Amino acid sequence: MLLLVAKTVHKKTWKEEFRKWGGINVDNIVIECYESLKKHTGEYFNFIVMDEVHHIKSDVRLDLLETLKYDYMLGLSATIP
């Protein structure tokens, strides 16, 4: 699973939440900032979760996202324009 977050601090927050609520092994999750999406060009993920998905709207990020292979994708946001 790939979890995309807006800022580096959110990587730690998500890991803490996973540990707090249990049931998900964080070792099997790649947590990456939108800015670092280029590290995973062409990779396959069975599931992609995009926290604060409104941050994906730049052309560069959308182009990088199109290079990924995945089965399922979920976007999370409370502020979709």
How does the helix and strand content classify structurally? Answer: alpha/beta
How far apart are the first and last residues' alpha carbons, in Å?
26 Å
Overall spatial form: globular
Largest sheet: 4 strands, parallel
Strand ordering within the main sheet: 2-1-3-4
Q: List low-confidence stretches.
A: none
Strand portion, in percent?
Answer: 25-35%
Number of strands: 4
Assign a percent range to the helix content: 25-40%
As a whole number of angstroms, the C-alpha radius of gyration is 12 Å
Instruction: List the helices and strands in order.
Output: EHEEHE
**If helices are DSSP runs of H or I spanning 4 or more residues, what is the number of helices?**
2
What's the pLDDT, averaged over the residues? 87
The oligomeric state of the chains shown is single chain
Description of the structure:
With 81 residues, the protein is of the alpha/beta class. It is built from two helices and four strands. The protein has a four-stranded parallel β-sheet with strand order 2-1-3-4. Helix 1 links the parallel strand 1 and strand 2. The protein is globular. The mean pLDDT is 87.
Sequence-ordered SSE layout with sheet pairings:
Blueprint: E1 2-5, H1 8-21, E2 30-33, E3 44-50, H2 59-67, E4 69-75
Parallel strand pairs: 1-2, 1-3, 3-4
